Structures are given as structure tokens and as C-alpha cells.
């Protein structure tokens, strides 16, 4: 896996990702402390609304930002988004009112909604070999999990030396260094045709390709399954550990570390596993495992109380492993489902639609825990995950071939596509594009 860092462009981009993640981790800790200073006991409400604004920016602005950015140089978009994030973080130490937090976080997350899909769509162009790209996805998964584990510890260390406002300075430095690394990297440009389409088509093209492709419709349903169980872990672990087990901050850190360790274990195993198995059975298996674990654990909590601490940690590690098994291969599906010039739009569609799932499951996890108890909430979210698995199995049937026999009754007989493939009826690797606007239902 580490061998792909020999590619200098990917090495620079991966370093940019890691450094930006560390900056984001410091921002998360600093923002919580800032909210408490400004709102006291209402800090949770402030942070909850800030997270909601983050999801609204991700869902609503990502396709719009991508449609606008298509006409701009790819490197300029990435560096510009990092510059905006750095400027916003630089403003945070001077915030004196709660509403200022909301405005700044919305602007920062809007920049992230521009940066992240564009960055993700760049990596397949840097690593065109599928095996190398799979290793890159696993390495990115490891980076996210390590950031979740190490950034809070790094922030705690800094807080023993300086005030929390300096955490925002660390965030600024993270985004500045990230932008410099992207600026120095040999980022491949977008295809010339991508920016020539009308704005309305650029705005909707990614969603249209996504929803017309069976494997991507299945991916959206599997995103729901993963986010349902994942939301329970991220929202309710603190309550389970502190109230259920009587644990302290270290116990909470250990529980989240177990979840992260399971996810990292999957990231290490998946590259070799995906050399032997197709994406669908791996992702379906992970999602089905999440359903089984959530329903069994929810029933046990409802009727028998919390299990022992060691069992709880093992279950959280298992959930982390299954969660990563669903999400890590998703980039392979996106890469396979669009031409290079359409990948930014498709990655932006995935970014928006997957976060739409979180926009539903995050509040559900919180409200259900209050109304149904922890066991009932986990069962409810397990049933949401089951719904996602059932929908995925229906809309993404097993055995779909990459090369599909199909016809083109709508194209003129002298069309270049027909000449290139030997007539109206032919077979090739099928993706949705200008010549293939719907998925063939039969050969």
C-alpha cells in the first residue's frame, strides 16, 4: 500500500490531505471550546446547528460549486478552496457572537464542499491503474481514521501549552500548507469539453449519471445503511460510555479508538480482498453485517442491558470494520461509472447524496435515543440500514457486466460512435454519457 507514495503527484496530494485533516481536527476541538465560551450550557445547541449548516452546505452547494468550477483550472479551484478555508479559520479567534460562528462555518464548509469532491475526482486521473487506486482509497481511509484518533490527542497536548484560540492558528497553517502542496503538485487538468456545456447541464449532469447507473443507485442505498449505524456510534457513544458504563474521557477515547481500529483493519485488508472479489459482494457483505450487529446489539441492550465493557469495545470495532467495508470501495464504483471529464460531477453527486443520508440519520440517532432508549434507537437505525440493503439489492442486481450489448436506434448511421464500434448493435464498457443516456434493460 505504501508503495503508491512513490508517485510524486499522489504523494504531494496525500500529504495535503493529511495536513488538512489535522487542521480540521484542531478546528473541531477549538470550535467546541469557543461555543462553550460564548453559549455556556447551550454550546451543544450551537454545535448541533453548526453541524446542520455543514451538512446543508455539503448537500446543497457541492453540485453547484462543481458546475461553476468546471470552467476553472482544477489546481486553481483546489488552492482557492484551501485559501478560503484558511481565511475563515483565521477569523475564528476574533468571534464574539454566536451568529458569527454560523456564518463562518457555513462559508468554510462551502469551501470544503468545493474542495473535497474535486480532490477525490483528481486521484483516479493521477492513478489510472485500478489496483493502485484501490490502495490509494485504503490509504485515505487510514488517514481519516488516524486523524480521528490523533487530532484530539494533539489538540489536548497543545492546550497544555497555549489557549484554545491557537488551535485555529494550527488550522490556518494546515490549510495553507495543504494549498502549497497542491500548488506544487503536477495536478492533471480537466478535459477541455467539460466546461463547454451549459450551466444547467453541468449542474445536473453528475446527479443524472449517478441516478441512471445501477451500481451507483446501489451505492446510495448502501450509504444509507452505513450512515444509519455510523450515526448511532458517532452521536450516542458518549452517552453510552459516560452514563451507561460510568466511564470518563479516556473511556470515551478508547471506545472511539475501537471503532477507528476496526475501520483501519478493513482498510488494510481490502486492497488484497478486492483483488479476489468484486466490489458488490464486499460492500453488500459489510452492509448486511451492519444490519445484523445493530439489530442484535439493540435487542440485547433493550432486554438485557449493556454488555460487558470488553464486549462493547469488540462490537464497536466490528462496526468500524463493516462500516469501512461499505464505504472504502465506493471510489472504485465512481471511477468506473463515468468518463474522466465527468468524474468531478459524479464525485460531487456522491458527496451531496451521501451527506443527505447523514442529514437524516444524525438527528434520527439523537431523537430516537431520547424517545426509545439506546436499544430501541439502535434497532430503529438497524432497520433503516436493512431498508438500504434491500433497496441496494433491488437496484443493483448481481452479475451486471461491464461490457453490455446494446443498440443505438437514435443515432444517425454515420455517427462516429457507430463507426468506432461497428454498427448500431455492439458491446463495450458501458457508462452514461451523451451517446448513452439510459441504462439498457436488455441486450
Concise overview:
The chain is an all-alpha fold and 443 residues long. 77% of the residues lie in helices and 2% in strands. The protein has two domains: 1-190, Up-down Bundle (Growth Hormone, Chain: A); 205-400, Up-down Bundle (Growth Hormone, Chain: A).
Q: Do you know the CATH topology of the largest domain?
A: Growth Hormone, Chain: A
Described by the principal axes of the CA atoms, the overall outline is globular
Strand order of the largest sheet: 1-2
Relevant CATH superfamily of the largest domain: MFS general substrate transporter like domains
Structural class: mainly alpha
The CATH class of the largest domain turns out to be Mainly Alpha
Distance between the termini: 39 Å
The biggest beta sheet reads:
2 strands, antiparallel
Amino acid at each position: 500500500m505504501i508503495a503508491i507514495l512513490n508517485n510524486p503527484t499522489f504523494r504531494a496530494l496525500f500529504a495535503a490531505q493529511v495536513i488538512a485533516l489535522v487542521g480540521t481536527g484542531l478546528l473541531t476541538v477549538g470550535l467546541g471550546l469557543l461555543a462553550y465560551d460564548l453559549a455556556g450550557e447551550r454550546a451543544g445547541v450551537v454545535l448541533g446547528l453548526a453541524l446542520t449548516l455543514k451538512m446543508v452546505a455539503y448537500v446543497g452547494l457541492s453540485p453547484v460549486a462543481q458546475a461553476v468550477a468546471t470552467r476553472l483550472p482544477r489546481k486553481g479551484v483546489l488552492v482557492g478552496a484551501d485559501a478560503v478555508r484558511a481565511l475563515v479559520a483565521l477569523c475564528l479567534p476574533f468571534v464574539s457572537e454566536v451568529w458569527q460562528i454560523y456564518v463562518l462555518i457555513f462559508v468554510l464548509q462551502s469551501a470544503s464542499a468545493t474542495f473535497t469532491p474535486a480532490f477525490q475526482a483528481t486521484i483516479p486521473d493521477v492513478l489510472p491503474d485500478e489496483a493502485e487506486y484501490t490502495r490509494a482509497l485504503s490509504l485515505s481511509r487510514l488517514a481519516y481514521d488516524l486523524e480521528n484518533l490523533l487530532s484530539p490527542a494533539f489538540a489536548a497536548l497543545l492546550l497544555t501549552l497555549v489557549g484554545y484560540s491557537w488551535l485555529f492558528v494550527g488550522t490556518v497553517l494546515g490549510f495553507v500548507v495543504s494549498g502549497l502542496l497542491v500548488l506544487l503538485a503536477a495536478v492533471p487538468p480537466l478535459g477541455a469539453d467539460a466546461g463547454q456545456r451549459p450551466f444547467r447541464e453541468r449542474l445536473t449532469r453528475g446527479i443524472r449519471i449517478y441516478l441512471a447507473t445501477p451500481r451507483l443507485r446501489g451505492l446510495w442505498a448502501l450509504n444509507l445503511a452505513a450512515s444509519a449505524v455510523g450515526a448511532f456510534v458517532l452521536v450516542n457513544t458518549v452517552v453510552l460510555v459516560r452514563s451507561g458504563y460510568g466511564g470518563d474521557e479516556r473511556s470515551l477515547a478508547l471506545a472511539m479508538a475501537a471503532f477507528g481500529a476496526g475501520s483501519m483493519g478493513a482498510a488494510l485488508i481490502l486492497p488484497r480482498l478486492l483483488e479476489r472479489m468484486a466490489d458488490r459482494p464486499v460492500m453488500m457483505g459489510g452492509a448486511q453485517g451492519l444490519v445484523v450487529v445493530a439489530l442484535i446489539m439493540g435487542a440485547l441492550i433493550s432486554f438485557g442491558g449493556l454488555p460487558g465493557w470488553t464486549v462493547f469495545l469488540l462490537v464497536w470495532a466490528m462496526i468500524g470494520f463493516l462500516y469501512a467495508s461499505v464505504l472504502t470501495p465506493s471510489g472504485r464504483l465512481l471511477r468506473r461509472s463515468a468518463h474522466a471529464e465527468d468524474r468531478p460531477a459524479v464525485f460531487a453527486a456522491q458527496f451531496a447524496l451521501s451527506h443527505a443520508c447523514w442529514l437524516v440519520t444524525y438527528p434520527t440517532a439523537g431523537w430516537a435515543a431520547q424517545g426509545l432508549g439506546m436499544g430501541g434507537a439502535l434497532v430503529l437505525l438497524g432497520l433503516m440500514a436493512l431498508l438500504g440493503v434491500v433497496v441496494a439489492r433491488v437496484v443493483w442486481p448481481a452479475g451486471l457486466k461491464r461490457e453490455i450489448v446494446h443498440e443505438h436506434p437514435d443515432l444517425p448511421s454515420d455517427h462516429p460512435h457507430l463507426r468506432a464500434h461497428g454498427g448500431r448493435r455492439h458491446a463495450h464498457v458501458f457508462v452514461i454519457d451523451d451517446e448513452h443516456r439510459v441504462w439498457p434493460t436488455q441486450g
